[in-house]
Design a protein that fits this description.
It is built from 14 helices and 4 strands. With about 375 residues, it is mainly alpha-helical.
Length: about 375
């Protein structure tokens, strides 16, 4: 019984340590993601998109630095960018590197590996290398469209429902019927014709005809404001709050799951067994990449999970965990399958896995050893 209590306390302690270390960065990521979602127009990004493939790859990396979006919100954001005309290969690179190449992820990695700051620089460098290789392969070998369904470009057509009965345009036949209540509380149907002629007979639905120059001395109080909601500030704040809470929930559940599984592994798997796997020159990288794929952690918090294995696994395997997980994991695979063909997603996952594995082995051998 005492052993069970001890193990439970150990699991809880490890879980809280990982979760509380990662929580501030998760909140900061949600805040900035919400600002990007609501204040950065996609049309502006489209105008900045370069034509040259190499410039497009660099542009995708710069987008990742400028817009700190978690992979949870990456796919919807990129779908809108493609509707605005962004090339597919740039969108794919942005999906892969956007969750990593941003200041929040760099700061969280730097804080998680305080005693080994080279891990933060190696993570950024390997991510950029993967972006360059995958981007060049896409521009060279991607011939057809990998999209499941064609994405039509958005137009500037806006449909506003004014509750108007249109009779061929905005001339004299363009009439609007409004329900008004007079000062005595009686409801009446009020009709008026909208016209550019100011000297005309204007019929108000009464038996008598008034000749006037279209000056309405009476007050029109339209509760529906012609179908428009003029409280744009309140609406924007509500949208931001809704987006922020949704993303916070999505990110926190994966963080809690990852922290809990990590705490279980650290508690019930012996250090000797972990070290036997973690110090292998090849198997440790494969193991941590598979672990990252299953955990599906947010990139702003996964560094703290990786740092908890620093005593058991090699730095190269932790680097593979930090780079491969945000690029390809369970949730990102499912989200990519919603817009890309399954064959393309499978091929992309294999290319990314091989590139990350080779890159992490090379960096460990030459820079982190």
């Amino acid at each position: 019984m005492g052993l069970v209590i001890y193990e439970t306390k150990h699991v809880f302690s490890a879980f809280m340590g990982i979760f509380l270390d990662a929580l501030p960065f998760m909140l900061l990521g949600v805040l900035l993601s919400t600002v990007v979602e609501n204040f950065i127009p996609e049309a502006f990004i489209r105008r900045m998109t370069p034509r040259h493939p190499l410039g497009g790859i660099l542009f995708a990396c710069v987008l990742g630095i400028m817009f700190p979006l978690c992979e949870c919100g990456m796919i919807p954001f990129v779908r809108r960018l493609m509707r605005k005309g962004m090339p597919v290969y740039i969108a794919v690179i942005f999906i892969l590197v956007g969750p990593i190449l941003n200041p929040i992820v760099f700061a969280s990695t730097f804080m998680a590996f305080r005693g080994e700051p080279s891990m933060a620089y190696s993570r950024m460098g390997l991510t950029f290398g993967v972006a360059l290789i995958v981007g060049l392969l896409l521009t060279r070998f991607l011939k057809g469209s990998p999209l499941r369904h064609p994405i039509e470009n958005e137009t500037n057509t806006h449909h506003h429902d004014h509750n108007h009965h249109k009779n061929g345009g905005s001339g004299p036949g363009h009439r609007a019927e409004h329900l008004h209540a007079d000062e005595h509380g009686r409801d009446r149907d009020h009709q008026h014709g909208h016209s550019n002629i100011h000297d005309h007979d204007h019929q108000h639905g009464h038996s008598n005809i008034h000749n006037h120059n279209h000056n309405h001395d009476h007050v029109h109080e339209h509760d529906d404001h012609h179908g428009h909601n003029h409280s744009h500030g309140d609406g924007r704040m509500m949208i931001m709050f809704s987006h922020g809470t949704t993303e916070l929930f999505e990110m926190s559940k994966y963080l809690m799951l990852g922290a809990f599984l990590t705490a279980l592994i650290q508690t019930f798997v012996s250090q000797d067994s972990l070290s036997a796997i973690g110090q292998g020159p090849f198997i440790s990288h494969v193991f941590m990449m598979g672990f990252a794929y299953l955990l599906s952690l947010c990139s702003t918090t996964d560094a703290f999970v990786a740092a908890s294995f620093a005593n058991s696994f090699s730095p190269g395997s932790l680097l593979a965990f930090l780079v491969f997980g945000p690029m390809i994991d369970v949730k990102s695979t499912l989200m990519m399958l919603s817009i890309f063909k399954a064959r393309f997603v499978l091929t992309l996952s294999i290319v990314v896995a091989v590139t990350v594995l080779a890159g992490s082995l090379l960096i460990m051998h030459f820079f982190i050893a």
